[in-house]
Write a structure and sequence with these properties.
Layout: H1 2-19, E1 26-27, E2 33-39, H2 48-65, E3 69-73, H3 82-95, E4 100-103, H4 115-123, E5 143-149, E6 152-162, H5 182-198, E7 206-209, H6 216-222, H7 245-252, E8 255-260, E9 269-272, E10 275-279, E11 295-302, E12 308-314, E13 321-326
Parallel strand pairs: 1-5, 2-3, 3-4, 6-7, 7-8, 8-10
Antiparallel strand pairs: 2-11, 5-6, 9-10, 11-12, 12-13
Helix pairs in contact: 2-3, 5-7
Length: 334
């Protein structure tokens, strides 16, 4: 009897452990789509009431949108209780068996815990797929998520590049925010080239996620060559120098769009030279500046196509705001 009880306990523990594990690989759904929910600038702090805004939003989006993956794009926590904050977030995601990942913002490491340790804490949470972190380059937590074909687990069909856009400038002559460093750009170039070569020379459809917007966001908004969706309520808080990531994305030919956070009252999407430059919707509500309703950006990739649909999902509102389709919705007929 004792052996049977022990076996049952071990089996239960094994099943519980399996339940806490995300799938080894991300793949498109049977209908050929892959849905991503982007949350940004949650600013989880030592204030349970304000944090509840984020948790409630997360629950709403998970229930209504049922994403295949959640991506947190920085300024996730503004507290020294980093472990507790991520445990609260991970609990909601693992309860719904939803895989997730994250990149860091400029505020994440301002409270006693360094970036490397934060990435370690995040990666150990249930259902987090922050794996295969790039080594020997600047930043913490740079990684790539391949999304595989519905019918072929051996061949990726799309890619998600996740960049650490750093925090603040480390150069005395340059003020302001940080930027994606040259070693990270070189890493992207190598990986992009490798995936392209393995796909018979054809770039895979890809997206990029980071916290601080690229300097080219301003040019995209002001361009007369693109349609725009969403609001621009503040000047883009991009770095004051340009490290060249955008031109390398153009040359790589794989990235269809980049998705950032950082500017809490900007939530627009526009294109520049055929690449979409987009913000998420700030997800922190009353513990961040701005008067926009907290929300999430939803992105739906389409298997085998250089296309995606995207919209904003606000807390308490099931309507799709700024609903558009890349690239069709951005074309201006002259």
């Amino acid at each position: 009897m004792k052996k049977k009880i022990m076996f049952s306990v071990m089996l239960l523990l094994s099943l519980l452990a399996q339940a806490q594990q995300a799938p080894a690989r991300m793949s498109f759904d049977k209908d050929g789509t892959f849905k991503i929910a982007q949350f940004t600038d949650m600013h989880l702090a030592n204030d349970p009431e304000k944090n509840r805004v984020v948790i409630d939003l997360l629950k709403e989006v998970l229930a209504s949108e049922q994403p295949d993956l959640v991506v947190f794009t920085g300024d996730n926590t503004t507290t020294d209780e980093v472990q507790r904050a991520w445990t609260d977030i991970a609990r909601e995601l693992s309860a719904r068996q939803t895989p997730w990942t994250a990149v860091l913002g400029n505020h994440d490491d301002e409270h006693a815990v360094n970036r490397k340790e934060i990435v370690r804490m995040i990666s150990e949470q249930p259902y987090c797929i922050l794996r295969n972190v790039a080594q020997g380059i600047d930043g913490e937590g740079n990684h790539i998520i391949p999304i595989y074909k519905t019918s072929d687990v051996a061949q990726p069909s799309a890619l998600l590049y996740c960049f650490d856009s750093q925090a603040y400038s480390t150069l005395k002559a340059v003020k302001g925010y940080g930027w994606v460093q040259q070693s990270q750009v070189d890493w992207y170039r190598r990986e992009s080239r490798r995936y392209t070569e393995n796909n018979a020379g054809t770039p895979l459809p890809a997206l990029a996620f980071l916290h601080i917007p690229l300097p080219e966001y301003t040019q995209a908004w002001e361009s007369l060559e693109t349609k725009r969706y969403g609001d621009r309520n503040e000047k883009e808080c991009a770095p004051n120098v340009n490290s060249g990531l955008f031109v390398n994305l153009l040359q790589g030919g794989d990235v269809m769009g980049a998705f950032a956070g950082h500017d809490h009252v900007n939530d627009y999407i526009a294109t520049l030279y055929g690449v979409a430059l987009a913000y998420g919707r700030a997800s922190g509500g009353s513990n961040t500046y701005g008067d926009k309703t907290p929300g999430s950006r939803i992105i739906v990739l389409k298997e085998g196509k250089r296309e995606f649909d995207t919209w904003i999902r606000e807390k308490g509102n099931t309507e799709r705001l700024y609903n558009c389709a890349y690239p069709e919705s951005f074309l201006i007929v002259k």
